[in-house]
Specification:
This protein has 138 residues and is α/β, with parallel strands linked by helices. 57% of the residues lie in helices and 9% in strands. It has one domain: Dna Topoisomerase Vi A Subunit, Chain: A, domain 2, CATH 3.40.1360.10. It contains 6 helices and 4 strands. Strand 1, helix 2 and strand 2 form a beta-alpha-beta unit.
Length: 138
């Protein structure tokens, strides 16, 4: 069992390291809320992190905010619940109509690993702590 958990932990750490590299290179990340922003910072991910659901922003406000970064790509890292999946889909569709490429690879990889165990980005840090406690000598 611990081998499976250790493998899962290592895969998540690797994804987070690649995410940190992309962010440090200037690719903005869009998450849902302020707590998601704080969680990414706790996980050593710096750079431009945009919260989609703050200040009563609409979908078009978010697309506009991303366009203003003048970046060719944005990493969408919204929650894994039904609402997050729907928002990810809608944002991706709207961004594809602009000159900005929605990057879903990190979201899809994390979703594939954590599945139903983590419902939001905010829960990722505590999930990592839980894994650490369950794995002997980690």
């Amino acid at each position: 069992m611990s081998t499976h958990l250790r493998d899962k932990q290592e895969r998540i750490i690797q994804i987070l390291e690649f995410l940190a590299e992309e962010s440090a290179a200037g690719t903005p990340i869009m998450v849902e809320g302020k707590k998601d922003v704080e969680t990414l910072k706790m996980l050593n991910i710096e750079g431009k992190i945009i919260a989609a659901k703050t200040g009563g922003k609409t979908l078009l406000d978010n697309v506009s905010q991303i366009e203003k970064t003048r970046k060719k790509e944005v990493i969408l890292l919204l929650d894994f619940d039904r609402g997050g999946k729907e928002l990810t889909k809608r944002l991706a569709q709207h961004l594809e109509k602009t000159e900005v490429k929605p990057n879903l690879k990190f979201w899809l990889k994390l979703l594939n690993i954590v599945g139903k165990e983590v419902k939001d980005i905010e829960g990722l840090a505590s999930y990592m702590e839980t894994l650490k406690c369950k794995i002997p000598n980690s």
